[in-house]
Design brief:
The chain is mostly helical. The protein has 23 helices and no strands. α5 packs antiparallel against α17, α8 packs parallel to α22 and α9 packs antiparallel against α22. The radius of gyration is 23 Å and the shape is globular. The N and C termini lie far apart (66 Å).
């Protein structure tokens, strides 16, 4: 039998290689930039291009990037061993392991059935109207968001099957003439919940810890966004957005079926099929409670800073409990390719982004961008709003929030500070917007292809709703969030 190989995609790969070579050899090194920094930018630009073009899976691209950084010695040209250590340095970053381990922990939600039970429970309470079902789906996703750093697994793997079963129970199929009954509306709510819940917690989507790291490195002295600080800052604007979002979509594409008196009974039947709450579900709930307790810094608040537990250490503790009790097996962990994939690509991108900062390229980019906008003679508020809009709407050109954040966040963050924005305020605005921009397209994040691919909406319906929600969400976070962050003392 002939072996079948799955090679690298030639056209995206050639584009990535060409871009790397052009930046490295053809474009002159700008004044004020070291050759090493410029050459690392060439490798970085090629890596991002390969990720966007999907020349290989993101983990495969990351392995190539790590090897190129090590072999070319761009971070340390005089010492090959030191260059290799630099290339592998991302794996020692605790935030990478926080996300990887949290992804492993989240397997328990699906394995034990707890995630589905939570969703059906809320529908059994509030599902007498279609709007109530929409809020139930949003509430269920919000509840599990702190412990599911894969927003794809959360919105696409746990909530979407619940949404589909509800739509099917009302005879709403993913086809024209049928999806308008209730399926289209619920699918759009299902997806547009995802960007908001991703913005709510550091552990709600994989790139958020990268933002925390870039904020720390981009401020002097380094400003640390803790898990609790992030969650408190996001709480008020995110809750307002979650309340308004289903109403906005209801106005854009109202479902034909507006009353669903049978939905609570359907949800109770589904819960009955799941059976009584199992020991595994109880242990999982206990572990999640412990994690939230530790991540929120409660021990330090009650007993003093010496009792603080690092978030990554807490995550390892939670995973240990699940393995010891048998809720998860080691095979479950090994088979969770998403977690290991996240660790690999996260390590590569964090490493490259970090050295771009250390070698001075980010500050040069920030100065260049900031000078251009400052030339318009605007105040810092108007200037940073322009920066924000460019940052958010450039997501139309990205098929990965990780690639987008890695490519642009550090430079835009530094540029905003150079224009006069209060560092912590700008960190929150740019950080939360990095999740909110997911709403725009059907390829904006991993959740999008799953829900869009189920066929309940057309491309036009998806893009129209995404654009409207991007405006609504940004206004809520800027206006409501601005007041809330002022109360918290961030500006």
């Amino acid at each position: 039998m002939e072996n079948k190989l799955i090679p690298i995609k030639p056209i995206p790969a050639l584009i990535a290689v060409a871009l790397t070579l052009v930046v490295w050899f053809i474009i002159p090194v700008p004044e004020g930039v070291s050759p090493n920094a410029w050459h690392l930018l060439a490798l970085f630009a090629g890596t991002i291009a390969a990720i966007i073009g999907k020349a290989l899976p993101i983990g495969g691209v990351s392995i190539v990037a790590i090897s190129l950084v090590a072999i070319t010695g761009v971070t340390n040209p005089e010492n090959s061993k030191a260059a290799l250590a630099d290339a592998l340095s991302g794996f020692s970053n605790d935030l990478i392991w926080l996300i990887g381990v949290a992804v492993m922990i989240s397997i328990s939600l699906k394995k034990t059935g707890l995630g589905a039970r939570i969703g059906y429970f809320f529908i059994s309470l509030f599902g007498k109207r279609t709007l109530g079902i929409a809020y139930s789906l949003s509430l269920a996703e919000t509840l599990i968001a702190p412990v599911t750093p894969s927003n794809t697994a959360r919105g696409g793997g746990i909530i979407h099957p619940i949404m589909r079963s509800i739509a099917s129970s009302f005879g709403s199929k993913p086809e024209r003439g049928s999806t308008e009954k209730i399926g289209r509306y619920l699918a759009l709510v299902n997806y547009n919940t995802n960007p908001i819940t991703s913005a709510m917690f550091i552990t709600a989507t994989a790139p958020n810890p990268l933002i925390v790291k870039l904020v720390y490195e981009g401020t002097h002295p380094g400003e640390t966004l803790t898990w609790g600080m992030w969650a408190i800052a996001a709480l008020v604007p995110a809750l307002v957005a979650l309340i308004i979002m289903p109403l906005v979509i209801y106005m854009i594409y109202p479902p034909e079926i507006k009353k669903t008196p049978n939905a609570p009974a359907f949800a109770k039947e589904k819960m009955k099929e799941l059976g009584p709450i199992s020991l595994g579900e109880k242990i999982t709930m206990g572990v999640f409670t412990i994690l939230l307790f530790l991540w929120a810094g409660v021990p330090a608040l009650l007993f003093g800073p010496e009792y603080a537990v690092e978030p990554t250490a807490a995550a390892f503790l939670g995973l240990s409990i699940l393995i010891i009790t048998g809720v998860l097996t080691w095979d479950d962990i090994l088979k969770n390719t998403g977690a290991w994939d996240t660790i690999v690509w996260f390590a590569a991108l964090v490493m490259m982004a970090g050295f771009l900062g250390k070698l001075g390229l980010v500050s040069w980019l920030a100065t260049t961008v900031g000078t251009g906008i400052a030339g318009l003679g605007l105040g810092w508020i108007a200037a940073t709003v322009i920066l924000l809009l460019v940052y958010v709407y450039s997501h139309y050109f990205f098929a990965s929030t990780t690639a987008h954040i890695t490519a642009m966040f550090a430079a835009f963050f530094a540029a905003g500070i150079a224009l006069g924005a209060p560092p912590m305020l700008w960190a929150l605005v740019l950080g939360f917007s990095s999740s909110l921009m997911m709403s725009l397209t059907h390829y904006g994040t991993g959740t999008a292809p799953i829900i869009f691919g189920s066929g309940y909406t057309t491309l036009g319906e998806w893009w129209k709703t995404g654009f409207v929600m991007s405006i609504v969400n940004l206004l809520i976070f800027l206006l409501v969030g601005g007041v809330w962050w002022s109360i918290l003392g961030y500006w």
